[in-house]
Amino acid sequence: MLAPDHPSSTHTPLAAESLPTMPLLDRYTTPADRYDELLAANGKPRAHWSEIIKHLDWMGPRALQEAREAMQQQIASNGVTYNVYADPRGADRPWDLDLLPQVLPAEEWEGIAAAIRQRATLLNAILRDLYGPQKLIAENQLPASIIQGHPGFLRACRGIETPGGIHLHLYAADIARAPDGQWWIVSDRTQAPSGAGYALENRALIGSQFPELLRTLRVQPLNTFFQTFRDSLAQWAPRDDEAPLIVLLTPGALNETYFEHAYLARHMGIPLVEGQDLTVRNGAVFLKTLAGLRRVHAIMRRTDDSWCDPMELRPESALGVPGLVDVARKGGVLIANALGSGLIESGALLGFLPSVCEHLLGEELQMPSVATWWCGEEPALEEVAERLDSLVIKNAYGFAAEGPVFGGDLDAEEREALIKRIHEQPRNFVGQEMVSMSRVPIWASRNASLEPRLTGVRVYAAATPNGYIVMPGGLSRVAGIKDTRVITIQRGGGSKDTWVLAGSQEELPLPTQPKAEDYPTIVTEHDHGSLASRTGESMFWLARYVERADCALRLLRCGLRQQLAADDAEWPALHAAGLRSGVIAKRTTQDKPLSPQAILLISLKDANFPSGPISNLQNVIRLARTLRDRLAPDSWRIYNRLDRLTTSWMRGTHTLSDALEFLDQSLMCLITLSGYSMEHMTRDAGWRFQSIGRRVERMQFLSIALDSLLVPIEGPPALASLIDLSDAVLTYRRRYQRAPERGPVSELLLTDRDNPRAFLYQLESLADHVGQLPGQLPADISTPLRLLAENLLSRKPEDWVGSSQEGTALRGLLLAAWEAGNELANALQNRYFSHLDVRTTIS
Questions:
Q1: pLDDT class for 18, splitting at 50, 70, 90?
Q2: Count helices and strands in the chain by DSSP H and E runs
Q3: Four-CA torsion 142, 145, 151, 155, nearest 10 degrees
Q4: What's the rounded Cα separation, in Å, for the pair 52 and 178?
Q5: Vertex 194, ends 191 and 198: CA angle to 5°?
Q6: Which among 677, 642, 647, 638 is positioned nearest to 78, based on CA atoms?
Q7: What are the boundaries of each domain within the chain?
Q8: What is the pTM of this model?
Q9: Contact present, 493 and 1 (Cβ < 8 Å)
Q10: How far apart are CA 433 and CA 456, in angstroms?
Q11: Can you state the percent helix, strand and coil of the chain, rounding each to 5?
């Protein structure tokens, strides 16, 4: 049987020199009691597999193993994950993808696609009736107790009319093949079907390893399916004077399929939002943007039904949008899938679908469901009790915490206990026949050969104004071990790319695909102010933490270099700067005296030090995860590498040389991220807030560094350390060709407009960026920055450090700059992120 969950298991690669060179099928055997997707009954490869087997034999075990390792590296680099809440790796658990695809010929796929279209049409009609006139109940087609007793039946949504009569915009069916080759539907996914984004990523990953095969076999592409789905939502969205805005509603970065949410949002070009990003006003839903509220016309939701509205559904929900049900009731927003659509995922309905299909559509089901008995009916209850040994017992509504129970596994006492439970609450249980699922080959690294695994396919259909279309492929799932009866990635299973061959045609078109000109233009971010406020805030803080980590790592690296060179001359001033900036933990000074080496290593290793470098790096990764849909794949790979570096550093003990290597590698990642921001990001509001965040942090760090190292209250200046911290060693040597002196250092780091790490550069850049922010600020918050810049330029650089009195004046200016940075951050928070100091407008 298929289980509805999904990730991943890890594999140990086999050393290349130990790989055997035998033909791939020598160890692959065909059982008599199961259908094999690769081999026919005579033991020969099926026709649609023959070209693939030839290609694999031509590659040989060594090349296949290298391809698998390259694919796993790409998964890790791309950060393709499936979060499992109980797994200690959490968000770091990689997606498990087998090297070999699942392959289906065009002729067979036509039958599958037709059955899935029919099934989606039928289930949509059932939903329309159950939340409308309920004729199916009145005409005894469905028992009222199944519906009225279902926890997923949302009474608050009864009577809501959906645009075009569509409740089920995206449908998924888990199908499996019986020993005779017949496909069966094991379960329906109607609430917020997952996996379509993983299927798209699987295609990209496998396609990079077998590009020639994809072209030779003319495997049908997947992209058009997602484009058509997005355009269909725009077509049904409520109309006004604006181009429709579609958003994807996610429960957040901790959700198990968050990678997919971000991936789909980026692929479809729509904003990824959380419930807190949306608000209800005047019968419509609005996105909180930097410029105010922007109308949302359609919501593609990945949040479960009951969590979508705390006002009318689940009051403890912090994931939904208060008032969303009422907006849907008034027709103010399209919600896909419609609220309450999880109702028909119930296994209790499966046994009634054949008759309901004939009643509503006037035709038989083209693909049957697995035989299922709902115990709420006396004859079915007796049948289940009598046949318990050969059945799987499940919760009828899918809400039970425990998994399926296999009747044949129970001893006499357990059997009687289960039967008693069923008799006490018969409506809560269904009995279902087990499907002896087919097998498909996987690439087994441990012995460099093909091995069989049980498999099933999740197939997707999307509603369009011209009927349902079916994705030409899907998410194939495979068992993690040989002798298992449940396929679930959460318990060690994996996935496969699903190839649908085009056959004799150049390409099989998507059935009843609507024309592009039928749809209105979709605009998600038409100006700089349309960025979601939470997204703008996250980008602002991401840049702050990147710069904060950069400054911290540079200070520690400067200290380590001095210790490795046995040079303690500037350590007191550098130590003071580290304490004042929070880079060095204060606890290192509270107990017995520690050596500089110990202080540096403790500060670099302590993850519980809230303002330390490790905490800053962890905040960088945390915020990057929440911005997955905004980050280009190339930049995400750098964040992912930085995460791996940090995780590796936190394990075990390290020497000073190890620490220096970690600092160099981490700084290289941060430099690359800053360069990517400068050279590849569009100069929109998100980029501008990142630039402001970076400049605020750099200005404040420079304030402390200049005060501690250029004009220290006690002791001599630490000019070499200051130049090193400011990444200006080479520039100083080329320009001045002398040992560090206060005058030249002051010129380079205080007033040089061409130096991006000079103090004046930060002041003027911040003033310029603030002046180009969207909307009207409550006051000119750039004025203090410009006044500070004018004050700094009012005298020569060397005059600021010519005497103790002038040094005091510089310290006053630096302190004012620090406070101006905080005032600026607070003003941005109140104006753009929390909207506390302006009246929010509706645009």
A1: very low
A2: 25, 19
A3: 80
A4: 24
A5: 165
A6: 638
A7: 1-370+435-517, 528-833
A8: 0.86
A9: no
A10: 16
A11: 50, 15, 35
